[in-house]
Amino acid sequence: MKNLLLLILSVLSLSSTFSQNIIMKDPEIEKMVGEVNADSLRSYISRMVSFGTRNTLSTQKDSRRGIGAARNWVLTKFSEFSRQAGGRLTAFIDTTTIQPDGRRVDSILLLGNVVATLKGTDPSDDRIFSISGHLDNMRTNVMDRVNDAPGANDDASGCAAVLEAARIMSKHQFPATLIFVTVSGEEQGLLGSNYMAEKAKKENWNIEGVLNNDIMGSNNSNETNIIDNTKIRVFSEGLPAFELDKKANAIRNLGTENDGAARQLARYVKETGERYVPNLEVVMIYRNDRYLRGGDHTPYVQRGYAAVRFTEMNENYTRQHQDVRMEKGIQYGDLIDHIDFEYLRKNTAMNLANLANLAKSTGKPLDVKVEVRRLTNMTNLSWKAPKYGKPKGFYVLMRETTAPQWQKKFFTTEAQIELPYSKDNYFFAVQSVSADGNESLAEIPVPARQ
Ligand SMILES: [Zn+2]
Predict the structure, then answer these.
(1) pTM for this structure?
(2) 229 CB contacts (<8 Å, ≥6 apart)?
(3) Ligand 1 mean position to 295 CA, how many Å?
(4) Number of CB atoms found within 10 A of residue 4's CB
(5) Contact 191, 104 (CB under 8 A)
(6) Ligand 1 mean position to 216 CA, how many Å?
(7) CA of residue 90 to ligand 1 center, whole Å
(8) pLDDT, tens digit (0-9, with 9 covering 90-100), for 183-210
(9) What are phi and psi of 231, to 5 degrees?
(10) Alpha helix (H) residue ranges in 229-387
(11) Which end of the chain has fewer CB within 10 Å, C or N?
């Protein structure tokens, strides 16, 4: 009888080994994803466009027009969501004074980011995950602060995603903290995100991931006629902008140029996003941003935080940074008519699934090491329990050195594993898994020499 039981147990554990690639969805996240609503997104964008212009240099005194009215409205929305959800979401306009730079700021400017925080429920967990969009916009001339600039896609689309995520997620509890932010001054030189990233660094915020959304509401190429709402790009840096000199030797020796913090985050968002959102492919782009273009994730990566940028697959340059006009039969300008709200719904849901999975996850495993002293074709990894939460176990991830994504997962409840694959032929990483199946970000091993 005892032997039979042992046999059944070993068969069960064998079958669980074979089913290791079937990942169950978290019903709480599935429910939140299902609540992302195209009509809500339309109402936010329509309101943002109604402020005429949201140029960072525009009026802050008019209650209906300009960046001042726009950021007050965003604050009102965050406060409304907070009331509907029991008051745990706290929001304010974080202002700073910017001096003229002789370039894109020509007079002293009061800059304001609208920041809403959903504090984590675990007081010992100081991790922060953030979603960001930029509220400001521009006409063809970035200094034109007077005339109309709808900015529906660039970047009311990103701000709408931030608002919708806040509306839905503020009703839920997460051990880690979430920050929802719409910054200003992006078009004037990433002013708002620079201010926020610098503040985070000075105050030692433990930001583990930033999802920046900028131009993600209409996949519609102006030259090549590609209209496709099934793909979104995630941009992530390769070699780290932060302290590259210090890290370059190790990166070269270990071949980890494709395994930095931003790239791990990109891999994670692709896997998690595609798990929860049907008919959406998250396409990893191996560069920090498009040619000669900037975004609000960059001030974070420059300070060593993992941050990525989401942008539609094909941009439309007759709409972006263009005065609204008709020319030779072509409608120029960033109008709301051009937004594909079903596409924006999927992209918002993809953001939400990732934020929720991260904020529900247990912490990254600590001290992940790969044994390198012995000449062997086996791989021995070890690690320590995470600082945050109690994981039900760990996934050991494996991929070929030329593969973009993790190809195999091994589940273990222990803090070490021996695998019959050579460490010289594959890359490995370890992530913790919470009781509900939420994975932490992946941590790559460092060589253990003694
Ligand atoms: Zn933008």
Answers:
(1) 0.94
(2) 219, 340, 342, 343, 346
(3) 7
(4) 8
(5) no
(6) 10
(7) 26
(8) 999 999 999 999 999 999 999 999 999 9
(9) -135, 140
(10) 244-254, 261-276, 298-301, 341-360
(11) C
